[in-house]
Amino acid sequence: MPSPPELGAVEISTEAFKDYYRSFRDPALRHGFRSLDDPLHLDHLVETAQSSLTRNFVLDFDDAAAYVAFDLPALSIATLLDAERPEPSYARWINICYPYHHRPLLELLAKRYDFSPRLLALMSSDPRLSRRSPPGSHHEAAPLKKFWSRHLRHPRSLRPRKGLMSCPSTLPSQAMTQL
Known about the structure:
Strand order of the largest sheet: 1-3-2-4
Number of strands: 4
Structural class: alpha+beta
Number of helices: 7
């Protein structure tokens, strides 16, 4: 059980965060943040964080409190970044799910935090696309090795016979030692 001074710190921190979010005109910021410490919201917040439909979240926290908002538009995040953070806030975590779908938000963060063009390109590239060199290039991609097409040599006694299973448990114990 927390001691009374710790309880007071939690209440001060919680009120500072609430006042901070109320100070915004943007409704996404004013009403979007929820306390991770509130048991009434926790299940919903965890469910939203795990959802494949979640685009992003911003988490402000300190030793005593944590507040999170989901799916903020880039303009709201820009407003949040331009504002001075409340006194107790030690850290802000901005998580972008599927960043290659959110290039405007990445560009906003790149400008704010001075990302190199290479880092921005890396963060905003779709990992599902092939990275092969164009045909005729001097640096064409090496042919893929077919790992599974290798022919494994088996002693004749271990080759599966028609109608028999070839799993090791059906082989004689002497043959098992040869494996």
